[in-house]
Amino acid sequence: MKDRDVLDSIARRAHYLATQMIFQANHRTDKDKGDPKIGGHASASASALHILGAIHLVAKGGFDFIANKPHASPADHAYNYLMDLFLKPDFSKLTLAEANTAMMGLRKYSHNGEPVFQSYHSAYDADHHHFFPSGTVGIPPVMAGYLALAYRYCKDHKYEVPDAHFWAISGDSEYREGSMYEAMPDFAEREIGNLTWIVDYNRQSLDGHRITNKRIMNGNDCDRIERTQIANGWEVIQVRHGKLREACFKKPGGAEFKKFLEEVPDYELQTLLLISDPEVFKETLQKEHASLKEFLKSVASSELKSIFLDFGGHDFEILTNALLHSRRIKRQPTLIIAHTIKGWGLKMAAASGNHSSLPNEDEMQALKAAQKITGDQLFERFSATSAEGKFLKKRGDQLYQDLLDEKKLREKNRELFSKKIELAGLPESLDINLKMASYPHTQWMLGQLTAKLVRIANAKPANDFENQWKLPAELFMSMAPDVGTSTNLNPAMDGKIFGAPTVEDLEAEHGVKDTKQPDLVPGEEVSDRFLRFDIAEGNVMSCVGSFGKIRDILGIPLTPLMTVYDFFIKRALDQYFYNQYWRSSFFCVGTPSGVTLSPEGAQHGWKSDLQIPNQITWEPFFCQELDWIFCDALKRHFLYENTDRSGNLIRCVTRGAEQKDFLNYLRKQDRFKSGDAEVKSDAEIFSVIRQEVLSGAYALIHYQGQTDYRPGENVVNIFSMGSPTTEAIQASEKLLAKGIYANVYVVTSPDLLCGILGHANNYEYLKTGLGINSNLILSDLNAQSPADWVTVSGRRIPIVSVHDGEAGLLDNIGSILGVKQFACAVRKHSKCGRPSEIYHYHGIDADAVTATALTALEETAMENTQLASAVLKRLSDQV
Fold first, then answer.
1. CA-CA distance, 378 to 871, in Å (whole number)?
2. CA distances from 119 to 41, 59, 338, 734 (A)
3. With the C-alpha atoms ordered 574, 577, 578, 584, is the resulting torsion angle positive or negative?
4. Phi-psi map region of 712: left, alpha, beta (phi>0 left; psi -120 to 50 alpha)
5. DSSP state, 198?
6. Residue 72 in contact with residue 41, Cβ under 8 Å?
7. Which residues lie closer than 8 Å to 378 by C-beta, 6 or more apart?
């Protein structure tokens, strides 16, 4: 048996297995009345069947990655099942019984730890190794390209990295996703040669046949795709015809037949596919296409349909040649357009509504019988002695060994870097001198922190402190969507752009370089650690997520940081969510942020309440807070101590704050005074406050201990976050003049305080760590008799929150604590103006906070605590 015959045989077994998986998932008995339909994508798996087979069985190496279109994941599972590549977390293999359980568990919930498969590729699958999660259409192919770039970056920076190729399969409808078009020119300009995108061109989408405008597009959609991709710098290979067709093209009239196949409108081609009667099919071609007269004479009706169905996307030899060719191109990405039939090998083939169609019981039995699988067994591998079994064993062993080798490399790298960082120790601060800074802001501080890391990375350490930061600094890299200079990353950019070295430094050569601006000429030197992008936030978000994943893939703790104007994070929310789902470890700095960016007006001033698993959001007020937050996050990243919080979202502003206020207010608190009323040292105060900052909030102003401090009467708690803390401080001072004690708690992380991460421990820090409670403070009623105790009046300490963002960022603090809360937040579109004017417009200025605090005290209901009759009786008996 020839290899091609072996491959075809394996593909047909994979075809049956994938279809059976979907069939079983849709014919379960364990469902409740009203459960949603499961659906099924046998047709989408079938169209990608040979593409995936050519990759898995021939083209890919064990270090390669695959981004598969979501609806074809069962076909991937089938090939990995046949190659015995279902693995446990420790990389041991599933037993055959466990593997069969997994095959029966498509879209099933694992109740007892049994292996199951998610709807699409996920990290929970037994064959998730080197697969991109694929529930988000249009994102995985982009992640594949940026992961390829990350591999090159690591290699050019002298880290140990295996050679890998990155494959991505998308449907022709998916291929119109904007995310892919944004990334397309970027991958070509960066000369990413180890990237191959494959379009499964089956001319159908979920809703039916794809009907495109051939006249306007000057050809079918495959022609438009080819022209577009070439114009964007890619190599393009059209895989249109199989070997059977190619042989027929040599017959009389064969050239006309080839021309017809390549130019017939896609909609007409799909219609012709649906004509099942060979005679009718031939008559239709004769009637509609006179140019085919000579060719049609040379073929019998019985073989004509077989020739017509011979699409190149189902021919192993043609596909494999194209895939292997793309591997040999080193500095240019490749697109392969594989012409296929949606539903290949099934009765539903090419039917308009086949996207979620399922074969019936009779067809499944026929498919099973064709594979010579008998009895109750549904899933079965080839015999070990068969040609297919021998091929799969050899191929599976080869890929498995590569996976084991990569595991060893990952563990080796992880141990190496962790040991070096632990031995050196990582300070709690980067020790930025703030004494000479004139009213700095947090975005400025970000620039100082990153600039110091860049300097330490590229120079000999000046002292032991810098030596401790040397390795982390070398692992740090940054990127931005054309806002690097305006987000204070200038030092990271200047002469340090990592990119394909395509130009000479003509500015320097002609003596016209502006030395006050960053040198943007790209290169691939060890010192180049900034990735420059055009205005394409989605690309940068995918890139930072891909670079952040290198830590978990190869054990190299690269630390990627991206900056973006906070409002435009929304343009990349799909990619941002993907990064969190993928558990990438990265920094996204949204700066400037909110309506505090008031001169930019309405469009730039909306900050979303992002509650996403695996995220931690920070919004520091004082520069010192940002220093602690940044350094702690770095340490957690390097030492793998950031489980469930590896996606760091930091929001900064360009509005300054008086940094001296930090210690000035803290020194006044009772808790920082010793018994003789002497204030503790600054270092002692900061040691306490640092822990509180990193816990999510701290008390900046706290009046407890004052003579006239009466909770329940004249005390209110203000929670502020970010820049409006200035207004919270001012409001506290205004209220003090009225005899009201307004404590100010500065929120540094809403996620830790009152979000998902806070919920994980029942908001322990908010409820006990800050010393706040919902106690009902009773009034002095001067009770004279039991009748006076029928009701007891009292108040709780109300909360006022103020922040630059949606109310939902903080407005649940009161409900968690059990007290009334009034939230000052952004609830309408903004305008241009100075921060003080815009804060007033939104009701988050000092006057608004003051008025809200007064209202809170006035409107906090006098709560009536009614005593039970039994209690009243006991009180009466005691009198």
1. 69
2. 10, 26, 24, 58
3. positive
4. left
5. E
6. yes
7. 20, 24, 100, 103, 104, 368
DSSP for 509-533, written as a single string: HTT---TTS-----B--TT--EEEE
Q: What are phi and psi of 633, to 5 degrees?
A: -65, -40
Instruction: Report, in this order, helix, strand and coil percent for the chain, each rounded to 5.
Output: 45, 15, 40
Q: Which two tokens stand for residue 543?
A: 């890139």
Amino acid code (one letter) for 313: G
CA distance readout (Å), 284 to 308, 535, 585: 13, 51, 59
- Give the burial class of 507: count Cβ atoms within 10 A of its Cβ; 0-12 exposed, 13-18 middle, 19 or more buried: middle
Neighbours of 828 (CB within 10 A): 11
Identify which of 306, 262, 254, 314 has the alpha carbon closest to the alpha carbon of residue 281: 306
Encode 549-583: b = buried (16+ Cβ within 10 Å), e = exposed. Answer: bbbbbbbbbbbbbbbbbbbbbebbebbbbbbbbbb
**pLDDT tens per residue, range 121-138:** 998 999 999 999 987 789
Q: Please name the residue ranges forming H helices in 371-463.
A: 387-424, 442-457
Q: Which of 212, 171, 166 is nearest to 64 (CA)?
A: 166
Residue 81 backbone phi and psi in degrees, to 5: -60, -45
pTM of structure? 0.94
Q: Are 595 and 839 in contact (CB under 8 A)?
A: yes
For the segment 510-568, what is each residue's pLDDT rounded down to a tens digit? 788 777 788 888 888 999 999 999 999 999 999 999 999 999 999 999 999 999 999 99
Give the total residue count for the chain.
879
Q: Which has the closest alpha carbon to 734: 845, 601, 846? A: 846
CA–CA gap between residue 803 and residue 845 (Å, rounded): 10
CA-to-CA distance for 323 and 58, rounded, in angstroms? 9
35, two tokens: 């459960």
Check: CB of residue 795 under 8 Å from CB of residue 863.
yes
Structure tokens at 777: 């403070």
The pair of structure tokens assigned to 605 is 């001033």
DSSP state of 41: -
